[in-house]
TrEMBL record:
Pathway(s) annotated for this protein in UniProt: tRNA modification; 5-methoxycarbonylmethyl-2-thiouridine-tRNA biosynthesis
Coiled-coil ranges (or none): none
Stretches forming WD repeats: 23-54, 78-109
InterPro entries, A to Z: Elp2 (IPR037289), WD40/YVTN_repeat-like_dom_sf (IPR015943), WD40_repeat_dom_sf (IPR036322), WD40_rpt (IPR001680)
Annotated localization: Cytoplasm; Nucleus
Protein name: Elongator complex protein 2
Pfam families: WD40
Keywords: Cytoplasm, Nucleus, Repeat, tRNA processing, WD repeat
Entry similarity comment: Belongs to the WD repeat ELP2 family.
Length: 255
């Protein structure tokens, strides 16, 4: 899309296959969208270097279908990203979202929910919650791990245009100006990386390793095995412009 009229987000009913709503805000192509895990928000990022956040209205008997209204966005004066925003994702409790861009920056935004609250608090004042993370290359994909690390930090994966995938831990409330809120946890080596840009990253919703043979954990009781899987291992899938899909086992205790 090169015009605002063609860059609107369209909402459709999968029951009737009719268009429910058009959400116009962006001036150029919307590059990625993400519903929040609690289904109360829709996030969109665009080639126009901005993001838009749409809040879901409560259903009524007269209007049972979900409708969304614009509740926060960045503009020319508030946009921190200076190039195309390629990707976005939500934290598991829908409190924070993250954006990544061609300008090599990864930024966490929020809060969208207050502590111990199940409902958004309007009006929303969304600000950067992290320092600006420079990943050294165009950040073409980003994803929050659904499960927290042992120190209650968030685990994020960033996919780069060169094909590498980097892992970081982020702790909210740390001194953001110095960058101490980000901790690098390493990344893929030459043999593990893709040969072209990483286009999408997605963590497995549940902890543990899918397809793990029971024999690989001989000597452990069923309870111990489940605890070991839940506390240690998570899995990350990546898709690339090189036409390949990779699945990585990540041991959180080793990070």
């Amino acid at each position: 899309a090169s015009k605002a009229e063609h860059a609107a987000v369209l909402l459709w009913s999968t029951t009737t296959w009719r268009q429910l709503q058009a959400l116009p805000y962006h001036a150029l192509t919307v590059t990625q969208m993400a519903f929040s895990p609690n289904a109360k928000f829709l996030l969109a990022v665009s080639r126009d270097r901005t993001w838009s956040l749409w809040g879901r209205k409560l259903s009524t008997p007269e209007s049972p279908e979900p409708l969304f209204s614009l509740c926060a966005h960045t503009g020319k004066d508030t946009a921190i990203h200076s190039r195309i925003i390629w990707s976005c994702d939500w934290s598991s409790e829908s409190k924070y979202f993250v954006t990544s861009s061609r300008d090599k920056k990864v930024i966490v935004w929020g809060p969208c929910m207050l502590e111990e609250s199940e409902e958004p608090v309007f009006p929303l004042e969304i600000k950067p919650c992290s320092s600006i993370l420079d990943v050294g290359d165009s950040a073409t994909a980003v994803a929050f791990c659904p499960s927290l690390c042992s120190d209650s930090s968030y685990l994020l994966a960033a996919g780069l245009e060169c094909g590498r995938i980097l892992l970081y831990r982020w702790r909210p409330g740390q001194e953001g100006a110095t960058g101490s809120d980000w901790i690098s946890c390493g990344g893929t080596d030459t043999f593990q990386s893709h040969t072209l840009a990483v286009k999408r990253l997605r963590w497995r919703p549940r902890a543990g390793q899918a397809g793990l043979e029971n024999g690989e954990m001989d000597g452990l009781s069923d309870t111990e095995r489940k605890l070991e899987e839940k506390s240690s291992w998570v899995q990350l899938a990546s898709a690339s412009a090189d036409h390949s899909v990779k699945i990585f086992n990540v041991n959180k205790r080793a990070l």
